[in-house]
Amino acid sequence: MNHRHTWQASPAPLARGARRSLLAGAALLALGGPALAEDEEGPDIKTLTKPESTISVGGGYLSDDNRRFGQYSGLRKKGGYLLLDADILWRDDATGAWTRVFGRNVGLDSRELRGEYELQGNWSAFIDYNQIPRYDPLTINTGLAGIGTATQTLNGTALRDVMLDTRRDRTTLGFGKQLPAGFDFQVRYISEDKNGSRVFGRGTADFLADPIDYRSEQLEAILGYTSDKLQLQAGYYGTAFKNKNSVLDVNTGVDIALAPDNESHQIFLGGGYSFSPTTRANFKAAYTRGKQNETFYTTATRPSVTNTNLGGEVDTTLIQAGISSRPSSQLSLLANLRYEDRDDKTPLYQYIDASSSRDGFNTPFSRTTTQAKAEASYLLPIDLRLTGGVDYERRKRSVLAIRQASWRAENDETTLRFEVRRSLSETLNGSLALHWADRDGSDFLDANNNTAADLVDPIHFADRKREKLRLTLDWVPIETLSLQLIVDAARDKYHTRNLGPEDGRAQYISLDGNYQLNENWQLLGWISNDDSKLNQTTRSNSANGTLVPVQNWEARMRNKGEAYGLGLRGKIGSAFDLGADLQYAKDTNVYQLNAVMPPEALLPDIGTKHTTARLFGQYAVKKNLSVRMDLGYDRFNTNDWTWAGWRFTDGTTVVNPNTSSTFFGLSLVYRMW
């Protein structure tokens, strides 16, 4: 789906004017007094030379409960909200020290707080706090008891509506120090707690709620060096993840393992060197060790298994190098090489008894990726710039002992790129880029544990030829009007042996415009359309033959998106800034199944529509005092059948609701110098 608008409860203030208008008087009355005459003067020296601090305080009201509207902002329940932002900055002229205190959305669940201090040319430090909510928009009607804990009981209580959510509390500490001889040092530490519940389950049978109680930590330390030609950074980056709940205990069936504790440690060295003003090289080398060695169950639970620790260990080596050069004003050259080796050293161990469908061993998985790129660009005398390049990628991966589908140990892909860019006239610029890519690889290995799947080439393994085109045009037909056009088109052709992907197409068209109506008013608009298609063949087997007969069948899948937007920015008089936005997006998923099957086995289309409208304005009461108003409307509508009508075997049902709501906010914005 196309989206251009991100809702903000208390956006940054608009530019301020100085003269009054009749319409602005309505906002002025809310303050109980007239603007002062001296504010009609222009800015003084103080406002131009001192750092500016801003405090914005007000209130907002949401007309209806809407968890989707406030999924990440916290504006989710009908009622009032405190709107509070602050950005306070001051400088000690005697020492050159800067101090900043910053707060955003302080009255909401998505609050951000930051304090920092910098003694220019010497050292700096900061502390940062972010609260990041996520409110699941789904409405769940369930009898599951124990939600939010690691012990849950199916049908342990009467059916009732449940809303799930999570919250991250992230604190970041940072310190930097300038050292002699071109050296500097930086260190950053992040601690994050994540708590709450999210949709979980045992297959499609029982609804469960994942009890989230995580602690994540990150530490990064960098020593840098800078000279005229050489820049280097060497450092350490480490992570640690802790999950308070290792097992979900359910009253029926086998307990379910949850995300295990793990950690990683990386050392790295990177930098760049300028051989000349026109030639520069860069590189990076890093070595990472990831470990997962938490005990995941006791021997009393499974007496036949004596190993209770995976002993997981993955070593990753990364080497990257590149060089760019401009031998002349017409010619520029570029080359890059990247190598990454992910070596899974986890020991093999038989954790469960072997059967006809598995050998009971874990499956360590290693892979190596090599990428190379070369590019040349030349400017012809007719102001025509030609760019040509070649990209190469090779992926090598482990061969699994037990394979549920056809497998490939290696894939290679080569891409040729060509672009022409030119100023077509004094008012029109354009470019045309073409890409041709060819992917193949080693021989396919049979699916030794699934006869039907042995006929299928997975989409990321299959041989493929890809063609891509991009056209861009920038047109300024008159001084007050500018237009930008982008057209993307792509076509994939797969060469599968029997079943799998056949071909695909994608296109994207967007047009953006900006029209200056007069010196005070500006009109913005855009429209976009995307259309992606994929055709594939597969085979139903006897396992579901009671509903769909055994046969080869086709799926003609399609995703269509369209979006429109219109915006207006302007001034009423010189003191009142006004803006408005209207946006609409529609997304459609089409599943065309060509097979012999009953109507209840067919998949209907899914359509989603999202409309937003917004009006905002700001009136300058005084040079340092303004009134800010926001009015927004949001409407979401979908017929998503993946949840509608679905019923778990324990009786739980889930609804993806259609929603609409209106938000109104009014704030005072105060500036200090």
Automatic annotation (TrEMBL):
Keyword Membrane: yes
Signal sequence extent: 1-37
Localization annotation: Cell outer membrane
Major site of localization recorded for this protein: membrane
Source organism, top-level taxon: Bacteria
Keywords carried by this UniProt record: Cell outer membrane, Membrane, Signal
Presence of keyword Metal-binding: no
Record InterPro entries: Beta-barrel_TonB_sf, Decahaem-assoc_OM_MtrB/PioB
NCBIfam families noted in UniProt: OMP_MtrB_PioB
Protein name stated in the entry: MtrB/PioB family decaheme-associated outer membrane protein
The organism of origin for this protein: Roseateles violae
Top-level taxonomy: Bacteria, Pseudomonadati, Pseudomonadota, Betaproteobacteria, Burkholderiales
